[in-house]
Amino acid sequence: MNKETMTKKYSNGEITIVWKPGVCIHSGICVRGLPLVFNTELKPWINIQAATTAQLIQQVNQCPSGALSYYNNDAEDENSVEIKAETKLEAIPDGPLLVYGNVHITDAFGHETRKNKVTAFCRCGQSGNKPFCDGSHKKAGFKDGKPTV
Predict the structure, then answer these.
(1) CATH number, position 28
(2) Which domain does 105 fall in, by range?
(3) Distance CA 15, CA 24 (A)
(4) With DSSP H G I counted as helix, E B as strand and the rest as coil, what are the percentages for the chain, rounded to 5?
(5) Theoretical Cys-Cys bridge with 134: which of 9, 129, 139, 145, CB 3.0 to 4.6 Å?
(6) Which tens digit of pLDDT belongs to each residue from 80-104?
(7) Which residues contact 62 (CB under 8 A, 6 or more apart)?
(8) 20 is a domain residue
(9) pTM of the prediction?
């Protein structure tokens, strides 16, 4: 299994956190928000027992790429979780465009994807996973809407 398709799951009995490393843009929001849970120095790097279920849910909901998600263990289908929220757009300085809410995306090739919670879209033009951000803006030196490369 390669990194792009890999999925890892961590459960505390109430919820299961799903991590998709191929989607991660390494924003560090999870590590800064709950460092006892998300610690890249340890293996496994997610210690789901180090926080309450409410704290875990709150932190996972802040993941800008959707690499982290969760589902209730008593839910029939992990993909059935849908956020009921107003759509919000936020341009991250020197980074992606974040879209909060439920979105249906059709890419340039006609492939459709459904996302909920937060979706990070590429603004630098360098992503290898367009239209989504893959963190390439850092290497490209993307600043204030203009790549420096």
Answers:
(1) 3.30.70.20
(2) 88-140
(3) 20
(4) 15, 25, 60
(5) 129
(6) 455 555 778 888 888 898 888 888 8
(7) 29, 30, 33, 118
(8) yes
(9) 0.58
